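Milestone 3.1: sequence recovery, worked example.
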């Protein structure tokens, strides 16, 4: 008669062999994979890419939105598209917090979702759409193509209550910014590269008037001040008015390393830009990226990959939302 221990091991071995491939992968903790939808929705990534191109052709600023989305969603605990959820009677949306000021174009995420749903209903998550649209927007802006894994599932609730805790802010010390990104596994050169996203888009006056009024910040390049004052003529700007300064006047629509040359010349708009160029921990990487766009793209690609893989919901966690702005009804909390 076989010993009981041997019989138990034999049962365990048989159970492991009996697991389906997907369960076996989940048991091994594989989580995200390249081309997750190759069998369930093989056209998914092509559809997203085409939609991003079409939207960019019609509305250039959508690319900036997709790039901001990946930062605002993935940095707050999980890459789970919680950013896209609307407010409910009980829960405030992340989109409506002060830290999300200036975020827009969410309706076009629904446009992409609808196109994917027409091909494969209930298969592709909003969180993967959010990540892949950011990847393709980076290309539209002249940046590198970054191969990103998929297989995320969508969260069911907003994380508005912890946005301040996890999302780095442009008015925080560089130490706080490094710490928050560090908690996601993104090191110092990665942080410097991610902030290179300030190479494109614009900064609303409400975010930078404290550097102009009541006194001009002496750290600003004097040659840049007249332009900033012209664009932001009021000490207390109307938040509903479209008043802003382009982050990079030289190449405002191109993701490139000109940002680093600007901040070394004291032309950064935000406090974090100034600190990045002057702090001894970050300045060496700023100088290196100012000299080499290839180095910037290499570190930017690595940092975006790490950001996109921050604590995703995979396997049986979360859900695949029918609409990106609302959780599926049968999963709503009572």
């Amino acid at each position: 008669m076989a010993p009981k221990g041997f019989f138990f091991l034999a049962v365990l071995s048989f159970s492991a062999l009996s697991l389906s491939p997907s369960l076996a992968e989940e048991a091994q903790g594989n989580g995200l994979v390249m081309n997750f939808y190759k069998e369930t929705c093989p056209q998914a990534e092509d559809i997203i890419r085409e939609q991003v191109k079409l939207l960019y052709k019609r509305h250039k600023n959508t690319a900036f939105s997709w790039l901001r989305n990946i930062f605002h969603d993935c940095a707050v605990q999980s890459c789970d598209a919680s950013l896209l959820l609307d407010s409910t009677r009980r829960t405030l949306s992340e989109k409506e917090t002060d830290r999300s000021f200036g975020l827009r174009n969410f309706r076009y995420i629904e446009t992409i979702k609808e196109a994917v749903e027409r091909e494969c209903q209930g298969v592709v998550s909003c969180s993967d759409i959010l990540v892949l649209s950011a990847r393709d927007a980076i290309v539209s802006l002249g940046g590198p193509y970054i191969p990103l894994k998929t297989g995320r599932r969508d969260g069911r609730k907003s994380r508005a209550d912890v946005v301040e805790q996890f999302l780095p802010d442009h008015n925080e010390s560089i130490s706080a910014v490094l710490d928050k990104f560090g908690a996601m596994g993104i090191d110092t050169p990665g942080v410097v590269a991610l902030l290179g996203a300030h190479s494109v888009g614009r900064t609303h006056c409400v975010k930078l008037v404290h550097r102009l009024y009541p006194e001009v910040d002496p750290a600003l390049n004097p040659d840049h001040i007249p332009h900033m004052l012209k664009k932001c003529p009021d000490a207390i700007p109307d938040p509903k008015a479209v008043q802003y300064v382009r982050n990079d006047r030289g190449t405002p629509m191109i993701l490139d390393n000109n940002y680093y040359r600007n901040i070394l010349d004291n032309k950064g708009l935000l406090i974090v830009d100034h600190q990045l160029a002057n702090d001894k921990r970050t300045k060496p990487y700023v100088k290196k990226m100012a000299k080499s766009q290839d180095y910037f793209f290499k570190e930017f690609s690595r940092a975006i990959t790490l950001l996109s893989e921050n604590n995703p919901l995979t396997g049986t966690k979360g859900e695949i939302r029918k609409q990106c702005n609302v959780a599926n009804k049968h999963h709503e909390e009572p």
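The two ends are 55 Å apart (CA to CA). The longest strand covers residues 202-204.
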